[in-house]
Design goal:
By secondary structure, this protein is mainly α. The chain is about 40% helix and about 0% strand. Helix 1 (about 15-25) packs across helix 2.
Length: about 70
């Protein structure tokens, strides 16, 4: 899984509130909404960043089951 790049971002409170309302309407976190908005803005400018491999979700693949001693 690719690591996400973390960095501080300072936003005008009114801009943050607008993004929060949009994120709530789309059932996303503010962070995910900002990422969507940035990807849309880049696409409008003709920039298509590669997507990293998404995080694997769910249970790990089935493997051998460990035998437990019964008393």
């Amino acid at each position: 899984m690719a690591e996400k790049k973390a960095f501080p971002l300072r936003l005008d409170p009114a801009l943050h509130d607008a993004i929060q309302r949009l994120a709530d309407a789309e059932l996303r976190s503010v962070n995910a909404e900002i990422e969507v908005l940035l990807r849309e803005a880049l696409a409008r400018r003709g920039v298509r960043p590669e997507r990293s491999q998404p995080a694997r979700r769910g249970r790990p693949p089935a493997g051998p089951i460990a035998k437990k001693d019964k008393f």
